[in-house]
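Board notes (copied after class):
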Amino acid sequence: MHTEWLLRIDRWLGGVLLLFCRRWRRRNPPATVRTILIFKFMGGGSITVAGPLLLALRRKHPDARLVLVCTSQVAAHAELLGLFDRIEAVDDRGVFRLAFSLLAMLYRCRRMRPELSVNLEVYSRVAVFCSALAGGRFRSGFYLEDETFARRCCDAALPFARQGRVFESYDALAGALAAPLPEPEALRQHVCAGISASPEETPVLVAAPFCSALSFLRRWDFAAWGEFLAGFMAAHPQWRVLVIGGPKDAGHAQEILAALPPELAERAVSGCGRLSLRESVAAIHRSSLFVGIDSAPLHWARLTGRRVLSIWGATEPELLLRPSPWLVETVIRVEAACSPCVHAVGRSRCSGRAECMAAVAPERVLAEAERLLRRTEPGMCQVALSMK
């Protein structure tokens, strides 16, 4: 189903359903937990940002079943985390399929008799309804300041600021659930242990130009990608390039690679539709440099990679990027008066043209990539660009 229709259905139908989900009496956290339900319907990358919280719950309740309720898009990322005992993926390929799939999922969840329900889906009203109806004895989650109905549905509800740091909200929820956060590199070590990634014989740049349909404003122009890759490959004749993405991105990946000169094109390949998510993350883990935008592959690169360069415009890196002490990283951020707009406003001022991302010149990205390769000490270098 188209993402825009999903969001409309969620807003109107979810608003009606939540009228019947008020928690009239608050309950205390259970002493014994056998089943934990986690709800996360959208955002494959954000499930990795919530990884420390999930690992904390796993360690806090080692004998409990950790069950995730999500869409098929999130399921692939959740499986790669390796923290869940069961993943319930709803079918969102149509209105009727979605409705029947949700009902069947709620029936299965109620039969599990969960002691703890955790809703990580901040922007979905239907997720709040499902977490309330799934039968968790103790419900927890977030609520937005302008949508306090979610607060009435939970036993423990934390405020979620649209302009706040997402990872700090997840960490605060772990504290509310009395689940001590793991050490910074614990999740990285856990995920990398499950990835088969032998070292590459030649250095590889992994490029991730694509993002989910939640907001295409995060994209950098495909022509700019072609210019950047051509310049990088010309300067580094020993390097290869791998462009990663989903099957739906295969055509755009070929568009980017077709712009390369023939003498360079033989060293660049597309993994879109050819590599699974696990294989793409393994390629990132083996790579010498990752370059991408605000998307799920970026979060995997920050978790499993070594050198990462990212380009930001419509979203704010400080709100989404958890500090990574092992990472050598450069963040290019376009400073625009209207940014960030994704999740912050109902409609972008540029009417979807992503003018902030268009202000990033390929030559500047190439220069920052060269500086990043010369750095040896871990840490984040932030580069601020102004709109022309």
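Comment from the instructor: DSSP finds 17 helices and 13 strands in the chain. The mean pLDDT is 87.
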